[in-house]
Amino acid sequence: MGPLLKTLLTLLPQNAISRLVGRAGRSKVSKRFIKPYISFFQINTDEIEQPVSAYPHLTAFFTRKLKEEARPVCPLPDALISPVDGKVAQAGRIHKGTLIQAKNIDYTVGQLLGCSNEEAERFENGIFLTIYLSPRDYHRIHMPVDGNVTHLTYIPGRLFPVNNIGVYHVPGLFTKNERLITYSHTSAGQMALVKVGAFIVGSVKVGYGEHTTNVKKGKMYSVDLPEAPHYQKGEEIGLFEFGSTVILLFEKDSVTLEDHIQEGTAVKYGERIGTVRNTKASI
Protein backbone atom coordinates (compact mmCIF):
# COMPACT_ATOMS: atom_id res chain seq x y z
CA MET A 1 0.00 0.00 0.00
CA GLY A 2 2.91 2.36 0.77
CA PRO A 3 4.37 2.67 -2.78
CA LEU A 4 0.87 2.89 -4.31
CA LEU A 5 -0.17 5.62 -1.87
CA LYS A 6 3.01 7.59 -2.54
CA THR A 7 2.41 7.30 -6.30
CA LEU A 8 -1.17 8.56 -5.93
CA LEU A 9 -0.02 11.47 -3.78
CA THR A 10 2.73 12.33 -6.26
CA LEU A 11 0.38 12.32 -9.26
CA LEU A 12 -2.01 14.79 -7.66
CA PRO A 13 -1.57 18.44 -8.76
CA GLN A 14 -0.91 19.31 -5.12
CA ASN A 15 0.05 22.95 -5.52
CA ALA A 16 -2.81 23.82 -7.88
CA ILE A 17 -5.35 22.09 -5.63
CA SER A 18 -3.92 23.91 -2.61
CA ARG A 19 -4.19 27.30 -4.33
CA LEU A 20 -7.79 26.51 -5.34
CA VAL A 21 -8.70 25.50 -1.77
CA GLY A 22 -7.01 28.66 -0.53
CA ARG A 23 -9.22 30.80 -2.76
CA ALA A 24 -12.33 28.86 -1.75
CA GLY A 25 -11.47 29.32 1.93
CA ARG A 26 -11.46 33.09 1.45
CA SER A 27 -14.82 33.19 -0.33
CA LYS A 28 -17.96 34.49 1.35
CA VAL A 29 -19.65 31.12 0.76
CA SER A 30 -17.11 29.42 3.02
CA LYS A 31 -18.52 31.27 6.04
CA ARG A 32 -21.34 28.73 6.24
CA PHE A 33 -18.77 25.97 6.85
CA ILE A 34 -17.26 27.57 9.96
CA LYS A 35 -19.72 26.10 12.46
CA PRO A 36 -19.56 22.56 10.98
CA TYR A 37 -15.75 22.89 11.02
CA ILE A 38 -15.85 23.84 14.72
CA SER A 39 -18.12 20.91 15.49
CA PHE A 40 -16.14 18.34 13.49
CA PHE A 41 -12.76 19.29 14.99
CA GLN A 42 -14.17 20.08 18.46
CA ILE A 43 -12.57 23.52 18.63
CA ASN A 44 -12.76 25.40 21.92
CA THR A 45 -14.45 28.67 20.97
CA ASP A 46 -14.14 30.10 24.50
CA GLU A 47 -10.49 30.95 23.87
CA ILE A 48 -10.81 32.67 20.46
CA GLU A 49 -10.48 36.44 20.19
CA GLN A 50 -13.78 37.22 18.42
CA PRO A 51 -17.31 35.76 18.29
CA VAL A 52 -17.67 33.07 15.63
CA SER A 53 -20.10 35.27 13.69
CA ALA A 54 -17.41 37.95 13.24
CA TYR A 55 -15.26 35.84 10.89
CA PRO A 56 -16.08 36.64 7.24
CA HIS A 57 -14.83 33.33 5.79
CA LEU A 58 -13.29 30.00 6.76
CA THR A 59 -9.67 31.12 6.31
CA ALA A 60 -10.24 34.06 8.63
CA PHE A 61 -11.50 31.65 11.27
CA PHE A 62 -8.71 29.19 10.62
CA THR A 63 -6.07 31.88 11.18
CA ARG A 64 -7.95 33.19 14.23
CA LYS A 65 -6.17 34.90 17.09
CA LEU A 66 -6.72 33.84 20.67
CA LYS A 67 -7.60 35.85 23.76
CA GLU A 68 -4.41 37.05 25.40
CA GLU A 69 -5.07 35.09 28.59
CA ALA A 70 -5.66 31.85 26.66
CA ARG A 71 -1.94 31.18 26.18
CA PRO A 72 0.23 32.64 28.96
CA VAL A 73 3.86 32.86 27.89
CA CYS A 74 6.34 31.46 30.43
CA PRO A 75 8.11 34.60 31.73
CA LEU A 76 11.31 32.98 33.02
CA PRO A 77 14.35 34.42 31.19
CA ASP A 78 15.88 31.01 30.47
CA ALA A 79 12.63 29.42 29.26
CA LEU A 80 12.35 28.08 25.72
CA ILE A 81 8.66 28.12 24.78
CA SER A 82 6.63 26.27 22.20
CA PRO A 83 6.09 28.49 19.15
CA VAL A 84 2.79 26.81 18.26
CA ASP A 85 -0.03 24.57 19.39
CA GLY A 86 0.51 21.04 18.11
CA LYS A 87 2.00 17.63 18.75
CA VAL A 88 5.69 16.73 18.87
CA ALA A 89 6.45 14.53 15.88
CA GLN A 90 10.17 14.09 16.58
CA ALA A 91 12.84 15.66 18.77
CA GLY A 92 16.48 14.97 19.44
CA ARG A 93 20.10 15.70 18.68
CA ILE A 94 21.39 16.43 15.20
CA HIS A 95 24.03 13.76 14.56
CA LYS A 96 26.22 13.70 11.45
CA GLY A 97 23.95 16.30 9.91
CA THR A 98 20.92 14.02 10.19
CA LEU A 99 17.42 14.55 11.58
CA ILE A 100 14.67 11.99 12.10
CA GLN A 101 11.42 12.13 10.11
CA ALA A 102 10.02 8.83 11.41
CA LYS A 103 11.34 5.41 12.39
CA ASN A 104 13.96 4.36 9.81
CA ILE A 105 13.38 7.56 7.78
CA ASP A 106 16.05 10.29 8.06
CA TYR A 107 16.94 13.47 6.20
CA THR A 108 19.75 16.00 6.43
CA VAL A 109 20.06 19.57 7.64
CA GLY A 110 21.46 20.57 4.26
CA GLN A 111 18.46 19.11 2.43
CA LEU A 112 16.00 20.76 4.81
CA LEU A 113 17.56 24.22 4.67
CA GLY A 114 18.74 24.06 1.07
CA CYS A 115 22.19 25.15 2.20
CA SER A 116 25.83 24.09 1.83
CA ASN A 117 27.49 21.49 4.03
CA GLU A 118 29.49 24.25 5.68
CA GLU A 119 26.35 26.17 6.59
CA ALA A 120 24.61 23.01 7.82
CA GLU A 121 27.61 22.28 10.06
CA ARG A 122 26.52 25.19 12.27
CA PHE A 123 23.79 22.97 13.73
CA GLU A 124 25.88 19.80 14.17
CA ASN A 125 25.24 18.22 17.59
CA GLY A 126 22.51 20.78 18.19
CA ILE A 127 18.85 20.12 18.96
CA PHE A 128 15.95 19.77 16.55
CA LEU A 129 12.24 19.74 17.33
CA THR A 130 9.43 18.94 14.89
CA ILE A 131 5.86 19.96 15.78
CA TYR A 132 2.83 18.96 13.71
CA LEU A 133 -0.21 21.25 13.63
CA SER A 134 -3.50 19.49 12.92
CA PRO A 135 -6.52 21.21 11.32
CA ARG A 136 -8.05 21.76 14.78
CA ASP A 137 -5.04 23.66 16.16
CA TYR A 138 -4.41 27.38 16.54
CA HIS A 139 -2.24 28.24 13.52
CA ARG A 140 -0.24 31.32 14.36
CA ILE A 141 3.50 30.99 14.93
CA HIS A 142 5.45 32.73 17.69
CA MET A 143 9.08 33.25 18.64
CA PRO A 144 10.29 30.60 21.10
CA VAL A 145 13.03 32.94 22.44
CA ASP A 146 14.00 36.60 22.15
CA GLY A 147 15.84 37.28 18.90
CA ASN A 148 16.57 39.33 15.81
CA VAL A 149 15.45 37.97 12.43
CA THR A 150 18.51 38.11 10.19
CA HIS A 151 17.79 36.02 7.12
CA LEU A 152 15.01 34.27 5.19
CA THR A 153 15.01 31.46 2.64
CA TYR A 154 12.08 30.37 0.50
CA ILE A 155 12.27 26.91 -1.08
CA PRO A 156 9.45 25.99 -3.51
CA GLY A 157 8.46 22.36 -3.79
CA ARG A 158 5.68 19.83 -3.50
CA LEU A 159 2.84 19.88 -0.99
CA PHE A 160 2.55 16.34 0.32
CA PRO A 161 0.33 15.97 3.42
CA VAL A 162 2.40 16.25 6.61
CA ASN A 163 0.16 13.96 8.69
CA ASN A 164 1.02 10.29 9.26
CA ILE A 165 0.17 9.45 5.65
CA GLY A 166 2.94 11.69 4.37
CA VAL A 167 5.41 11.18 7.20
CA TYR A 168 5.42 7.39 6.92
CA HIS A 169 5.08 7.04 3.14
CA VAL A 170 7.14 9.90 1.67
CA PRO A 171 10.85 9.63 2.58
CA GLY A 172 12.43 13.06 2.89
CA LEU A 173 8.98 14.65 3.11
CA PHE A 174 10.22 17.84 4.77
CA THR A 175 12.91 18.27 2.12
CA LYS A 176 10.40 17.87 -0.73
CA ASN A 177 7.63 20.19 0.50
CA GLU A 178 7.75 23.97 0.24
CA ARG A 179 9.55 25.71 3.10
CA LEU A 180 9.82 29.23 4.40
CA ILE A 181 12.80 29.42 6.76
CA THR A 182 13.41 32.17 9.30
CA TYR A 183 16.94 32.52 10.67
CA SER A 184 17.38 34.45 13.90
CA HIS A 185 20.21 35.50 16.19
CA THR A 186 18.69 34.78 19.58
CA SER A 187 19.46 34.53 23.28
CA ALA A 188 20.16 30.85 22.49
CA GLY A 189 22.51 31.60 19.60
CA GLN A 190 21.56 30.97 15.97
CA MET A 191 18.15 29.42 15.37
CA ALA A 192 16.38 28.23 12.24
CA LEU A 193 12.58 28.15 12.33
CA VAL A 194 11.37 26.10 9.37
CA LYS A 195 7.74 26.46 8.32
CA VAL A 196 6.78 23.52 6.11
CA GLY A 197 3.94 23.84 3.63
CA ALA A 198 1.47 20.99 3.21
CA PHE A 199 -1.38 19.75 1.05
CA ILE A 200 -4.22 22.31 0.84
CA VAL A 201 -2.22 24.84 2.86
CA GLY A 202 -3.20 28.06 1.11
CA SER A 203 0.05 29.69 2.12
CA VAL A 204 2.57 30.33 4.86
CA LYS A 205 3.05 33.99 5.77
CA VAL A 206 5.50 35.92 7.96
CA GLY A 207 5.19 39.20 9.80
CA TYR A 208 8.47 40.79 8.69
CA GLY A 209 7.89 41.15 4.94
CA GLU A 210 5.78 40.23 1.92
CA HIS A 211 7.02 36.65 1.81
CA THR A 212 4.66 33.75 1.21
CA THR A 213 4.57 30.21 -0.19
CA ASN A 214 2.78 28.27 -2.93
CA VAL A 215 3.12 30.92 -5.63
CA LYS A 216 2.93 29.96 -9.30
CA LYS A 217 6.36 29.23 -10.79
CA GLY A 218 7.97 30.10 -7.46
CA LYS A 219 11.77 30.13 -7.35
CA MET A 220 14.10 29.60 -4.43
CA TYR A 221 15.58 32.74 -2.94
CA SER A 222 17.46 33.84 0.16
CA VAL A 223 17.57 37.37 1.52
CA ASP A 224 19.43 39.06 4.36
CA LEU A 225 17.37 41.39 6.54
CA PRO A 226 19.78 44.23 7.35
CA GLU A 227 17.25 45.88 9.64
CA ALA A 228 17.13 42.60 11.66
CA PRO A 229 13.68 43.15 13.23
CA HIS A 230 13.57 42.18 16.89
CA TYR A 231 10.96 39.77 18.24
CA GLN A 232 10.36 39.10 21.89
CA LYS A 233 9.69 35.60 23.15
CA GLY A 234 6.04 34.83 22.42
CA GLU A 235 5.61 37.54 19.79
CA GLU A 236 3.80 36.43 16.63
CA ILE A 237 6.11 35.93 13.66
CA GLY A 238 3.91 34.19 11.08
CA LEU A 239 0.96 31.92 10.35
CA PHE A 240 -0.26 28.92 8.38
CA GLU A 241 -3.48 29.00 6.39
CA PHE A 242 -4.02 25.30 7.08
CA GLY A 243 -2.46 22.44 9.11
CA SER A 244 1.27 22.01 8.72
CA THR A 245 4.59 21.56 10.52
CA VAL A 246 7.24 23.67 12.25
CA ILE A 247 10.83 22.48 12.69
CA LEU A 248 13.22 24.25 15.08
CA LEU A 249 17.01 23.89 14.81
CA PHE A 250 19.43 25.09 17.50
CA GLU A 251 23.21 25.09 17.75
CA LYS A 252 25.24 22.76 19.96
CA ASP A 253 25.00 23.40 23.73
CA SER A 254 22.46 26.22 23.27
CA VAL A 255 19.25 24.63 24.58
CA THR A 256 18.02 21.53 26.35
CA LEU A 257 14.49 20.16 26.01
CA GLU A 258 12.27 19.24 28.93
CA ASP A 259 12.18 15.50 29.64
CA HIS A 260 8.53 15.21 28.64
CA ILE A 261 9.12 16.66 25.16
CA GLN A 262 9.16 13.53 23.05
CA GLU A 263 7.24 11.93 20.19
CA GLY A 264 3.49 12.30 20.75
CA THR A 265 3.64 15.07 23.36
CA ALA A 266 0.91 17.70 22.92
CA VAL A 267 2.19 21.26 23.36
CA LYS A 268 0.59 24.69 23.53
CA TYR A 269 2.05 27.96 22.37
CA GLY A 270 3.68 29.78 25.31
CA GLU A 271 4.37 26.76 27.49
CA ARG A 272 7.92 25.96 28.56
CA ILE A 273 9.43 23.19 26.46
CA GLY A 274 13.10 23.67 27.32
CA THR A 275 15.89 25.75 28.81
CA VAL A 276 18.16 28.26 27.12
CA ARG A 277 21.70 27.38 28.19
CA ASN A 278 23.50 30.14 26.32
CA THR A 279 21.75 33.08 28.00
CA LYS A 280 24.80 35.32 27.62
CA ALA A 281 24.43 35.50 23.84
CA SER A 282 24.06 39.17 22.86
CA ILE A 283 21.15 40.11 20.62
TrEMBL record:
Subcellular location: Cell membrane
Residue ranges that the Swiss-Prot or TrEMBL entry lists as coiled coil: none
UniProt site positions, description: Cleavage (non-hydrolytic): 243-244
Major enzyme class: lyase
EC number(s) per entry: 4.1.1.65
A Pfam family of this chain: PS_Dcarbxylase
Keyword terms, alphabetized: Cell membrane, Decarboxylase, Lipid biosynthesis, Lipid metabolism, Lyase, Membrane, Phospholipid biosynthesis, Phospholipid metabolism, Pyruvate, Zymogen
Active site (catalytic residues): 85, 142, 244
The protein's role, per its UniProt record: Catalyzes the formation of phosphatidylethanolamine (PtdEtn) from phosphatidylserine (PtdSer).
HAMAP family with a match to the protein in the record: PS_decarb_PSD_B_type1
PANTHER family: PHOSPHATIDYLSERINE DECARBOXYLASE (PTHR10067), PHOSPHATIDYLSERINE DECARBOXYLASE PROENZYME, MITOCHONDRIAL (PTHR10067:SF6)
Protein name from the UniProt record: Phosphatidylserine decarboxylase proenzyme
Native organism: Aneurinibacillus migulanus
